[in-house]
Automatic annotation (TrEMBL):
This is Pyrroline-5-carboxylate reductase. NADP(+) binds at A69, V70, K71, P72. It comes from Citreimonas salinaria. Pathway: Amino-acid biosynthesis; L-proline biosynthesis; L-proline from L-glutamate 5-semialdehyde: step 1/1. Its EC number is 1.5.1.2. Residues 162-268 form the Pyrroline-5-carboxylate reductase dimerisation domain. InterPro entries: 6-PGluconate_DH-like_C_sf, NAD(P)-bd_dom_sf, P5C_Rdtase_cat_N, P5CR_dimer, Pyrroline-COOH_reductase. It catalyses: L-proline + NADP(+) = (S)-1-pyrroline-5-carboxylate + NADPH + 2 H(+); L-proline + NAD(+) = (S)-1-pyrroline-5-carboxylate + NADH + 2 H(+). Catalyzes the reduction of 1-pyrroline-5-carboxylate (PCA) to L-proline. HAMAP family: P5C_reductase. GO terms for cellular component: cytoplasm. PANTHER family: PYRROLINE-5-CARBOXYLATE REDUCTASE, PYRROLINE-5-CARBOXYLATE REDUCTASE 3. Belongs to the pyrroline-5-carboxylate reductase family.
Length: 271
C-alpha cells in the first residue's frame, strides 16, 4: 500500500487525542493530504479542528487504513461504529494498551486484518518508537504499510508474538513518563542542594536530553558512556554508589516499575 492508496481510499482515525494527534502530525508532514483523512472524535482539540480533515463526517466506504487511538476503556463504545468496515481489506491498526487482537477481532469481524501497535509520545516530534504485531489476516503488503505509516513518527520494530507487547508497553510505551519523572527528581534534588527552581530544571532537562542524544548518536554501549563520565574516586562514583546499589538503587526500582506497568497491560487485556 502506497501513500497514494491511502490518499485515494482514505485513512480513518478513531480518537485523536495525544497519541492520535502525534501520529496525524507526522503523516501530514510526510505529505498525506488532509482531505484523505477522516477523524472521529467527540472532543477534538483546536489543533485537530484546524487541520482541514473530514472531522466527525460520515466515514468513507472502503478506507485503506483505520487507526484506533481511543482509551482502552472507550473501546466497547467506539468499535461498533467501525464494524461495517471489517472483514474486508481495510487494515485496522490499534494503539490501545491492553486491548488484544482477539478483542478487536470480536468487535470488528473475525476476518479483519488487524495490527496491534504500541507507540510512545515522542512520536509528536518524530522520535517515537512503535512495536507492531499483526493477526493472520494481515498480508505482507499490509504489514509493510503499517510499518511505513508508523515510521512517519519514529522507529518501528516488529514483534514475534502478541504477548511481547505487554513488556513493550511497560518499557517504551510508558517509558517516557519514567524519564520525565527522572527530570523532575533531578531538578528537585538540585533545588535541595541550593539551586533556584529555574536553574535546577534547566540543568536536569538538558542533562537528560543531552545524555539521551549522545546515547543515540554514538550508538555506544550505555555502560561505556557511563564509565566515560566516571573518574576513579570522583563525584560520579560517589553518586553511582547510591544509584546502582543492587538492593536500594535504581536496578530493583526500575525492575519493579516496568513489571508493574507490564502487569497492568496484561490486566487490561483480561478485561
Ligand atoms: N499517551 C501515551 O503515551 C500512549 C497512549 N497509547 C494508547 O493510545 C490510546 C489513546 O491515548 P491518548 O491519546 O493518550 O488518550 P487521549 O485521551 O489523549 O485521546 C483519546 C481521544 O479519544 C477520543 N474519544 C473518546 N471516545 C471516543 C469515541 N467513542 N470515538 C472516537 N473518539 C473517542 C477522546 O475525545 C480523545 O480525544 C490509548 O488506548 C492508549 O493506551 C499508546 C501508547 C502511548
Ligand atoms: O498509560 C497508559 O495506559 C498508556 C499506554 C502506554 C502509555 N500510556
Amino acid at each position: 500500500m502506497q501513500n497514494s492508496e491511502l490518499a485515494q481510499r482514505g485513512l480513518v482515525l478513531m480518537g485523536c487525542g495525544k497519541m492520535g494527534s502525534a501520529m496525524l502530525e507526522g503523516w501530514l508532514a510526510r505529505g498525506l493530504p488532509s482531505s484523505s483523512v477522516w477523524i472521529s472524535d467527540p472532543n477534538p482539540s483546536d489543533w485537530v479542528k484546524a487541520q482541514g480533515t473530514h472531522l466527525n463526517a460520515p466515514l468513507p466506504p472502503d478506507p485503506a487504513v483505520v487507526i484506533v487511538a481511543v482509551k482502552p476503556q472507550k473501546m466497547v463504545e467506539a468499535l461498533p461504529a467501525l464494524r461495517a468496515l471489517g472483514n474486508g481489506d481495510t487494515l485496522f491498526v490499534s494503539v490501545a494498551a491492553g486491548t488484544t487482537i482477539a478483542t478487536l477481532e470480536a468487535a470488528l469481524g473475525e476476518r479483519s486484518p488487524i495490527v496491534r501497535a504500541m507507540p510512545n509520545t515522542p512520536a509528536a516530534i518524530g522520535q517515537g518508537i512503535t512495536a507492531i504485531v499483526g493477526n493472520a489476516h494481515v498480508s505482507g503488503a499490509q504489514m509493510d504499510a503499517a510499518e511505513a505509516l508508523l515510521s512517519a513518527v519514529g522507529d518501528v520494530v516488529r514483534l514475534e508474538t502478541e504477548a511481547q507487547i505487554d513488556a513493550v508497553t511497560g518499557v517504551s510505551g510508558s517509558g517516557p513518563a519514567y524519564v520525565f519523572h527522572l527530570i523532575e527528581c533531578m531538578a528537585a534534588a538540585a533545588e535541595a542542594e541550593g539551586l533556584s527552581p529555574e536553574l535546577a530544571l534547566q540543568l536536569a532537562r538538558a542533562t537528560v536530553a543531552g545524555a539521551g542524544a549522545l546515547a543515540v548518536r554514538t550508538g555506544e554501549d550505555p555502560a561505556q558512556l557511563r564509565r566515560n563520565v566516571t573518574s576513579p574516586n570522583g563525584t560520579t562514583q560517589a553518586g553511582l554508589d547510591v544509584l546502582m546499589d543492587t538492593d536500594t538503587g535504581l536496578p530493583p526500582l526500575i525492575r519493579r516499575t516496568v513489571a508493574a506497568a507490564s502487569a497492568r497491560s496484561r490486566e487490561l487485556a483480561r478485561g
